[in-house]
Design brief:
Length: about 220
């Protein structure tokens, strides 16, 4: 898909009709049309699964803070590492069909994903999803299945924004088709085993006050 994506970025495909309404969630389109939409409507963010788009809603302040904290903590560990961390603006491919998601945080250790100007992660090793009421079911079911089926993926991290609670699902080293789950609570240290990184729960939830009432608009 490299050539097709690059063609879209160069504006070589026909422009989207400005008179046409924005695609609705569940609307089907080709991969070429999807990347055309992404290029011509940068203020809208759609994920792409099974040939259909899903419009993503905005997140809460707490959601953004937690994602930033995880991104920053991981990035500090990769100063002298081939691995790197990216945020939710990067497309992540998770199937050959293909499917494209926007995880809150992604870690790749593939040199091809580091190339200058790249906008698509094809070899994610870790993805982090900060859970929201409107997306949690999807994150735990359909999206999780796609993540776990992608060969490069080693860990999927689910982070609650309403309580200090983190789940890490790891690929079994002895059986790559099976996964095991580890949960972490207040005062513990979350282990990102596939990159040998340890991040405390305090770091992940820095600047989050769970005693303060939370307004959730997602």
């Amino acid at each position: 898909m490299v050539g097709k994506v690059e063609n879209v970025k160069k504006g070589e495909m026909m422009a989207i009709d400005p008179q046409k309404a924005y695609p609705q969630s569940g609307e089907h389109m080709s991969v070429e049309e999807y990347f055309q939409l992404d290029y011509t409507q940068p203020n809208l963010k759609y994920e792409y699964e099974d040939g259909a788009v899903q419009l993503m809603s905005g997140g809460s302040r707490e959601h953004d803070i937690i994602a930033f904290n995880v991104h920053k903590a991981l990035d500090l560990h990769f100063q002298s590492s081939p691995c790197f961390v990216s945020g939710s603006d990067m497309h992540v491919q998770v199937s050959k069909e293909p499917d494209y998601y926007f995880p809150d945080v992604t870690v790749s250790c593939d040199v091809a994903d580091r190339r200058r100007g790249n906008t698509l992660i094809r070899s994610p090793r870790i993805v982090v999803e900060v859970l929201s009421p409107s997306t949690e079911k999807f994150d735990r079911t359909d999206k999780m299945k796609k993540y776990q089926a992608w060969p490069s993926m080693q860990e999927v991290v689910l982070v609650s924004q309403f309580a200090p609670f983190v789940e890490v699902l790891r690929r079994n080293k002895q059986n790559s088709s099976s996964w095991h789950r580890t949960a972490y609570g207040l005062g513990e240290v979350v282990v990102f085993e596939s990159v040998d990184v340890h991040i405390s729960m305090e770091e992940i939830y820095r600047k989050i006050d769970f005693d303060e009432p939370l307004m959730e608009d997602e």
